[in-house]
Amino acid sequence: MRWLSFFILAYIALGLDAGLARAIEWKAAPPDFVLLAAVFIALCAPHDTALLACFILGALHDLTGLGTLGLLAFSYGIAAVFIVSIQQAVNRQHPLAHFVLTGIAGMIVAVIVSLHGWIRPPLPGVHPPVMPLFYSAIYSAILAPFVLAALQKIRGVFHFQTSRGRM
Amino acid sequence: MKFKQVFFGLMMLSLLSAFALPRRATDLNGTSLQTFLIPISSPTYRTANAIRSRFETRPVEDTRDSLAIQRENLALKEQIQAMSAVIDHLQERAGERASLGGFEAFCDRFEVTAADSGVHEAITITGSGISSLRADLPVLSSGSEIALIGRISRAGEMAAQVRLVTDPGFTVTGHFVSYSTANGATENKDLTAIVTGRGKGEMVIDNLPIDDVSHAGLQAGDWVVLSDDTWPRDLQGVRIGRIDSIQPLSKQTLFAEIRLAPEQNLMHLSDVWVMTHQR
């Protein structure tokens, strides 16, 4: 994978997340553009590269918010492990695959972030709301077929190589 | 070393950082990395919020019938007229007209360029003079309804991050301002409310016995204003939010759960005031 292209994608996704996501939120749940980028990378990049890239996306997302260092890096890493493990079994171009995989990845992130909110609340007895995280996963899944279809059209700039191709 | 081991190590490190290490070591109150996103976040934030504001209808915050609101407005106008006369008289007598300016005299205006998209409620601000800001400075909403909206959590050379009052765990104390047709707006300083941010644009007060709340006659629509010695003196009495609902606390029914909402959605503000100096 061409890492420069990856970092440009990460930059745009993080910028949209900071600028656009809250403006188009639904029930206090914004779409997660960084997760959409992570799902695209996990679907298309070779196994090891995909895992590392998704972990980096999560870490960058941690660094641009008010959150806890490592929380989204870990969550995106786990989501990437899931997507990469079934990468070969799904049609990477199909909108339904984009919808389902983004939905599941969003749910994984939501569960881990919710657990973190319950185990380590900001104040004793004050737990961050959980439902917006799950709504956010659904919202991202609905956007996924459109966003990932657009990204699939420019996948050439990423120079993805399959594991077999590199051998 | 194999990639699997490196990746496993990174994952374990992030897991430890998120769930095991002390919060003070791992909680990011925003980083300067946010600054680099401004070329994308600022135009998209402004454009999207401009479009959103065209279509968004403001939620009805007051459920009373229009006659009651008209009566309240009339009574408030009379009260303001009476108070204005008193203030004018006092100002002239003390010769302090200039020093009785609004918040603008102590504040600088900054543009909002981004909003946190995670579980936290925070915004990023920028503008000339941003490098002079420091952590913990109070932040107020701009426009006709000036209200306390949060504190600077991290200040950088090109941008600063504001933790909003609605962010889970943000705590501030205040007291109530009620309205009655007979007495107009009356401050109730007997009940000290601990206001805690709960996310989703909400704040909650759950430290008051329900009997005291009933006895004080608090109801939806009343305001909570700042009454907290840890904040600047000039800000005491500034509005924090409006009571949305009052219910018994589910875990301790002897206490009330008072839900508050700010006057406007704090995640969609276009600009804010930062109180950079004091009287």
- Provide the helix percentage of chain B: 25-40%
How many domain units of chain B? Answer: 1
Portion of residues in beta strands of chain A equals under 5%
Record the strand order, biggest sheet of chain B. 1-2-5-4-3-12
Total domains of chain A:
1
The description of the largest β-sheet of chain A is: none
Rg of chain B, rounded, reads 22 Å
Low-confidence region ranges of chain B: 96-100
General shape of chain A: globular
Q: What is the average of the pLDDT values of chain B?
A: 84
Question: Radius of gyration of chain A over alpha carbons?
Answer: 15 Å
Q: Count all strands of chain B and give the number.
A: 12
Count of alpha/pi helices of chain A: 7
Morphology call of chain B: globular
Number of DSSP E strands of chain A: 0
Given as residue ranges, the uncertain stretches of chain A (5+ residues, pLDDT < 50) are: none
User: What fold name goes in the CATH topology slot of chain A?
Assistant: Arp2/3 complex 21 kDa subunit ARPC3
End-to-end Cα distance of chain A: 15 Å
Instruction: Tell me the series of helices and strands of chain A, N- to C-terminal.
Output: HHHHHHH
